[in-house]
């Protein structure tokens, strides 16, 4: 088993002008991931762009891995343009993903934008009743909604412009939900943009709710060597690629 | 086929070393690379006391390269010796401890402590760091300060002493001669080239530290040129680095005068880069009928007699 392996692109589904799902099949023995872990994908065989791109694992089985990719720059454009049959090499699974809830805890999932990629495996893990608060800018920015509805009956959608579901963000929706119902020993699992993460951490702190939050930072090596991807925690700088990407909400400096 | 080279008292089984700061303390890459196959392991830069490093963002990708401003985060010499060195001792590979200080006393203190530890085979001084006593001017950009700090370290260690040179100087050959005169057994170059990148939409620097060190293929021509200039200027071995991604790149540096090479940013792109490069050097030797790698050192052919 190796965490550095060759693979073949077996599918590339363009979901919109900004998002695609890349499907790959490893050509060598590889290690199975668990929810919240990520891979570093080489985006081309050339030296520019140079660095690999970190992507959360969306779905996996014996035959392959799937990644939900948001178009952001040159690297993700190359990943968007990949064709079935092309070769790609991957490093992973990397990092610490989401821990299991402790006895009696009720998991609540929160995803913002492409953060759904990181949270998605937990919907499968905790099916069929898990509460998921999924927010995006607009209805067109919500992905995998039909698949998610097949996995949980407890989806709470929000959009900033109100074009689908609650008008506002996922944290506001969750806050209103918590005010109006009693969830026994809630524990939050979350991944989203920086603004969402910040307001979520504040809310969890005020209410004394535990959480596991996936963070993002620019990354080079992915194996803890370069110290490029650190975030500030109550115990000093910690590496997103090694101690993270999922951190205990109480540890993240705000 | 003989790939072995000598750097000071160190016998390397091949000329491929790791570049400081790109291979952690070795253990991070042990899953991907048999560390015993490497010429030498150069550790993450160590200081007498642990360092927190710079706030994020610390890195940004640039054309065919990357900028970093890690800020020399490290666990300090004591913890390195206690927690990291025992792991490296399992492997049949020379360990070169890279170290730095922000004063001559700190350089000397770190060198003394590292020299007393079992399992460290050589030292590499990073003089591309700011000098507290000289208004935070970088040690390695001033010939007199370079002479002073290298001489001071030379007095307290019998280990093979390598001085890593900054390319951010007008005359790198002069800095290399100063290091040699002060007692260095070898010089390694180049360290990263100071650079900067701006987000034009926010008008903010892309690194929290504003400036950072450029590495990767983008700087290879600078490194090759500087190695050539230094090779002509000193008698001690030169270790070449800067954007080496393949065996061909390593050979290019050796033709310019490098006795050995250090592989850095390539580790981030391909975790097996070091051993891939050793294979690439073997392939070049086989293709060109070269039996001993040291025979290509400084093998550049050129016409201009005035250079």
Structure, described:
The complex is a heterodimer of chains A (254) and B (307). Helix content of chain A is 19%, strand content 33%. Chain A folds into 2 domains: 4-94, Translation factors (Elongation Factor Tu (Ef-tu), domain 3, Beta Barrel); 106-251, Rossmann fold (3-Layer(aba) Sandwich), CATH 3.40.50. With 254 residues, chain A is an alpha/beta fold. Chain A has a 7-stranded antiparallel β-sheet with strand order 4-3-7-1-2-6-5. A 7-stranded mixed β-sheet of chain A has the order 11-10-9-8-12-13-16, sandwiched between helices. Chain B is α/β, with parallel strands linked by helices. The model of chain B has no long low-confidence stretch (mean pLDDT 96). Chain B has helices spanning 76-88, 104-116, 143-156, 172-181, 220-233, 247-256, 266-269, 273-288, and strands at 5-7, 10-12, 16-18, 41-42, 59-62, 65-68, 95-99, 122-126, 130-131, 137-138, 160-164, 186-189, 193-196, 198-199, 204-205, 211-215, 238-241, 260-263. Helices cover 31% and strands 21% of the residues of chain B. In chain B, strand 7 (95-99), helix 2 (104-116) and strand 8 form a beta-alpha-beta unit. Chain B has a single domain, classed as Aldolase class I (TIM Barrel). Chains A and B meet through strand 14 of A and strand 5, strand 6 and helix 7 of B.
**For the report, how would you describe the main beta sheet of chain A?**
7 strands, antiparallel
The major beta sheet of chain B can be summarized as:
8 strands, parallel
Would you report the number of β strands of chain A?
16
Distance between the termini of chain A: 39 Å
Query: What would the average pLDDT of chain A be, to the nearest integer?
Result: 96
Q: What's the multimeric state?
A: heterodimer
Number of DSSP-assigned strands of chain B? 18
**Number of self-contained structural domains of chain A:** 2
């Amino acid at each position: 088993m190796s965490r550095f392996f060759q693979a073949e692109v077996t599918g590339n589904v363009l979901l919109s002008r900004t998002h695609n799902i890349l499907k790959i099949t490893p050509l060598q023995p590889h290690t199975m991931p668990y929810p919240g872990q990520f891979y570093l994908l080489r985006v081309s065989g050339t030296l520019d762009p140079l660095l690999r791109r970190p992507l959360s694992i969306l779905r996996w089985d014996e035959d392959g891995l799937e990644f939900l990719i948001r178009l952001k720059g040159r690297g993700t454009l190359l990943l968007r343009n990949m064709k079935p049959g092309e070769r790609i090499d991957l490093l992973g699974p990397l990092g610490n993903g989401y821990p299991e809830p402790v006895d009696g805890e009720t998991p609540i999932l929160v995803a913002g934008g492409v953060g759904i990629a990181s949270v998605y495996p937990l919907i499968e893990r905790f099916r069929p009743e898990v509460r998921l608060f999924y927010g995006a800018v607009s209805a067109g920015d919500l992905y995998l909604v039909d698949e998610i509805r097949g996995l949980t009956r407890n989806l709470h959608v929000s959009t900033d412009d109100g074009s689908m579901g609650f008008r506002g963000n996922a944290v506001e929706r969750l806050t209103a939900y918590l005010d109006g119902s009693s969830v026994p020993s809630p524990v939050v699992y979350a991944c989203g943009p920086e603004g969402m993460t910040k307001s979520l951490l504040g809310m969890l702190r005020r209410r004394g709710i535990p959480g596991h939050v996936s963070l993002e930072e620019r990354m080079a090596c992915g194996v803890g060597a370069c110290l490029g991807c650190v975030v500030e925690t109550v115990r000093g700088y910690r590496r997103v690629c090694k101690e993270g990407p999922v951190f205990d909400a109480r540890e993240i400096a705000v | 086929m003989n790939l072995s080279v000598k750097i000071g008292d160190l016998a390397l089984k091949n000329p491929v070393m790791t570049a400081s700061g790109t291979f952690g303390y070795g253990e991070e890459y042990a899953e991907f690379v048999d560390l015993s196959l490497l010429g030498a392991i150069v550790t993450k830069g160590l200081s007498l006391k642990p360092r927190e490093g710079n706030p994020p963002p610390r890195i940004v990708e640039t054309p065919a390269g990357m900028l970093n401003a890690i800020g020399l985060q490290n666990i300090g010499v004591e913890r390195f010796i206690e927690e990291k060195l025992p792991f490296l001792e399992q492997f049949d590979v020379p360990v070169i401890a890279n170290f730095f200080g922000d004063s001559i006393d700190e350089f000397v203190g770190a060198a003394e402590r590292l020299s007393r530890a079992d399992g460290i085979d050589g030292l590499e001084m990073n003089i591309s760091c700011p000098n507290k006593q000289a208004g935070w001017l970088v040690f390695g950009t001033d010939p007199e300060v370079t002479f002073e700090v290298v001489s001071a370290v030379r007095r307290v260690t019998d280990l093979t002493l390598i001085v890593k040179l900054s390319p951010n100087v007008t005359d790198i050959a002069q800095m290399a001669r100063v290091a040699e005169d002060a007692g260095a057994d070898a010089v390694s170059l180049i360290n990263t080239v100071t650079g900067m990148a701006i987000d034009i939409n926010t008008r903010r620097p892309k690194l929290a530290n504003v400036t950072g060190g450029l590495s990767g293929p983008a700087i290879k021509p600078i490194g090759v040129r500087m190695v050539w200039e230094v090779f002509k200027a000193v008698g001690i071995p030169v270790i070449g680095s800067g954007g080496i991604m393949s065996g061909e790149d390593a050979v290019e540096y050796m033709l310019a005068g490098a006795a050995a090479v250090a592989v850095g940013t390539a580790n981030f792109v391909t975790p097996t880069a070091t051993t891939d490069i050793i294979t690439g050097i073997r392939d070049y030797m086989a293709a060109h009928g070269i039996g001993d790698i040291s025979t290509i050192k400084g093998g550049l052919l050129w016409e201009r007699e005035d250079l």
